[in-house]
Amino acid sequence: MNKTSFTTYGVWAVFIALLAALLPHTAWAFRQYEPTQSPVLIGSFTWADLISYVLAFAFEAAIAVLTHKLAKHFEMTKEVKKQIKNADGTFSKVTDEWQTFKARYVNSFMFGLIITTCVSGMANLAHAVQFGQALTIFTRLGINPNLYSFAFGGVLPLVSLTFANVLSNVTEDEAAPNPEMEEAKKTILSIRQQLRETESKLRDAEGRVKAAEEKTRAAEDRFTAIGDVVKYLFGEDKRQRIVISRKQWPQLPGAAIAIIAGASPAYVSEVLREVDA
After folding, report:
1. Could you tell me the residue range of the domain that residue 261 belongs to?
2. Residue 132: which of 118, 153, 154, 117 has the closest Cα?
3. Quick one: which of 56, 38, 57, 58 has its CA closest to 48?
4. Is residue 61 exposed (0-12), middle (13-18) or buried (19+ Cβ within 10 Å)?
5. Which of 71, 102, 205, 277 could form a disulfide with 168 if both were Cys (CB 3.0 to 4.6 A apart)?
6. pLDDT tens by residue, 76-106
7. Is residue 239 a part of any domain in this protein?
């Protein structure tokens, strides 16, 4: 999603300002075809004046809308390619200039824009001719006054088409991806992916190390317990042999403990009574 840049807003602001400036001239031209006598609405503003301004606004607004539509059409209408066969039998794609021209300019948007801009251009040309004054430059340089009337009043069609092209080019420039930026984004994504994979492998390794440590501690505990049992079972103190046998095998009968401890059953019974007491 690309945001509209300040340049695009600036171009549209200039274009709208131009149409707004031409609006009274177009309204004046339409007013020439309305009745001289018309009902007064406010002050000296008559019903015919209102109709003239509504018509002028409709045409100038249509120019703005159609220019916008044409600019969008230019954006979507890329160069039309055609295949040509090379001398070596291979095929290449080249721009078909005529098809590209037709795709961009032969459409309803262009047709409507030509009509509306011609009407507005003729209205502003008539206004320029009607109220144009003799300038020194005309006589001093021998310039035809009609040239100035056309330049200042009837050039709107060309200006509108130029704005449509400018707007489409600005949008294309905004939308066009920056190769360096795209490459940087790919590099960043690759680095992030590598970091995620490294972090995942590190977590797995830490988990395996932790599990190995737990197994080692459990084995050490078991070996320690077995060592204590062996030490007491094979010690010199018969009493200790009897006590550890009782703790290690609580369900073992006294006769069996007597055999393990190497003591008499009576002594075993005596010690067990003290232990169980």
Report:
1. 235-277
2. 153
3. 38
4. middle
5. 71
6. 776 666 667 676 767 677 667 778 788 878 8
7. yes
